[in-house]
């Protein structure tokens, strides 16, 4: 069973999510619904990593940038990390080198891979999920048909 905020998105919002993965991620209800779906599939580490990277890229302070980079690395990248994401060895090594001198782009390659994985794998499953279908069904039931 999925649960998101008690405040539901409008039917129109829910339908927009199927148009593009970016639409889903840009909408707070869409993001919450997608996170709940990923959690139900035991793969929420992907969206959590992606969101951590988005936050990381907005960080201005060099000290905070370094501490956030270490946290992201420890949480998602290093071997046996609690929320280890599924990326190739080469990308992991590149990140390990990149965080020696932290820049806003040190996780870019991994973030792109995770985004692509979610867009091509998790997103289509989300759109076919009972939860999303139920939102769409409610959408159809709320439409007034004029003859």
Automatic annotation (TrEMBL):
Task: List, in alphabetical order, the GO biological process terms annotated in this UniProt record.
Answer: negative regulation of signal transduction; regulation of translation
- Which is an annotated Pfam family here? RGS
Residue span(s) of domain RGS: 20-136
Highest taxon, organism lineage: Eukaryota
Q: Which GO terms describe its molecular function?
A: GTPase activator activity
Q: Where in the cell is it found?
A: Cell membrane; Cytoplasm; Nucleus, Nucleolus
Its primary localisation, in coarse terms, equals: membrane
Sorted alphabetically, which keywords does the UniProt record give? Answer: Cell cycle, Cell membrane, Cytoplasm, GTPase activation, Membrane, Nucleus, Phosphoprotein, Signal transduction inhibitor, Translation regulation
**Where is it found, in Gene Ontology cellular component terms?**
cytoplasm; nucleolus; plasma membrane
- According to its UniProt entry, what is the function of this protein? Regulates G protein-coupled receptor signaling cascades. Inhibits signal transduction by increasing the GTPase activity of G protein alpha subunits, thereby driving them into their inactive GDP-bound form. It is involved in the negative regulation of the angiotensin-activated signaling pathway. Plays a role in the regulation of blood pressure in response to signaling via G protein-coupled receptors and GNAQ. Plays a role in regulating the constriction and relaxation of vascular smooth muscle. Binds EIF2B5 and blocks its activity, thereby inhibiting the translation of mRNA into protein.
Q: How does it assemble?
A: Interacts with GNAQ. Does not interact with GNAI1 and GNAI3. Interacts with EIF2B5. Interacts with PRKG1 (isoform alpha).
Full protein name: Regulator of G-protein signaling 2
Q: What species is this protein from?
A: Buteo japonicus
């Amino acid at each position: 069973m999925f649960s998101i905020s008690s405040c539901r998105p409008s039917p129109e919002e829910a339908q927009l999510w199927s148009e593009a993965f970016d639409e889903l991620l840009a909408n707070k209800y869409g993001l919450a619904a997608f996170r709940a779906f990923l959690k139900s599939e035991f793969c929420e580490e992907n969206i959590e990593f992606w969101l951590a990277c988005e936050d990381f890229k907005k960080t201005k302070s060099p000290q905070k940038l370094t501490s956030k980079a270490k946290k992201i690395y420890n949480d998602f990248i290093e071997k046996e990390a609690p929320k280890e994401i599924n990326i190739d060895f080469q990308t992991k090594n590149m990140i390990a080198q990149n965080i020696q001198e932290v820049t806003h782009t040190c996780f870019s390659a991994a973030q792109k891979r995770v985004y692509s994985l979610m867009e091509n794998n998790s997103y289509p499953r989300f759109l076919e999920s009972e939860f999303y279908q139920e939102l769409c069904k409610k959408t159809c039931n709320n439409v007034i048909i004029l003859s």
